[in-house]
Amino acid sequence: MTSLQGRRGGRLLEAVLGVALALAGLFGVLLPLLGVTGPIDPVDTRDVRIDAVTRVPAAVTSGPVTLHGTHRAEVALTHPDVQQRILLALPDVFYGALLIVVLAFLLRMARTLREADVFVPENARRLQVIAAAIVAMGVLGPAVDAITTHLLISGTAVSPAVPFAYTVSAAPLFLGLLIAALAEVFRQGTRLREDTEGLV
After folding, report:
1. Residue 68, Cβ neighbours under 10 Å: how many?
2. Which of 33, 103, 141, 184 keeps 20 to 30 A from 96, CA to CA?
3. In the prediction, which pLDDT does 68 show?
4. What is residue 39's DSSP assignment?
């Protein structure tokens, strides 16, 4: 009975990951690429950080608390050409592709649950790939965003107001390290099981 429940749970997990994988491919990669090639309206804006403080429509005051503004702004391109469309879509495609990698390897790991045998060498390697992809989201993702933004505004009148901003997010780095540690646990578990089987 427990084995049957485990298989059902494994199939349900596979189905959820399969749906998530399809959605990531659709919204993270396919739609941005269709925006570049023309069948759908392209993305024509990019959120940026500026040097000057932006003004809010009206000052908001509540007793001793006052809302002033933020350093966030939006760059809008009226009629982006193909090169600009590529630069606008590239960060979304990059993140979408990495998310697809993560979900695809998680799906492969979920399939090992059918046999109730997750401690296999392949899963340790899959976790290492997942960890690398998540770290890349935190390190390379912001770099892609910063570089493409710089290329979009380079030579325009708004360029002096938008500094080159590259900020590494700590959360993906910590998550990637945790998953890398889990991959090592899987690797050690696999080795211990092989050693135990060798003694029998």
Report:
1. 10
2. 184
3. 52
4. S
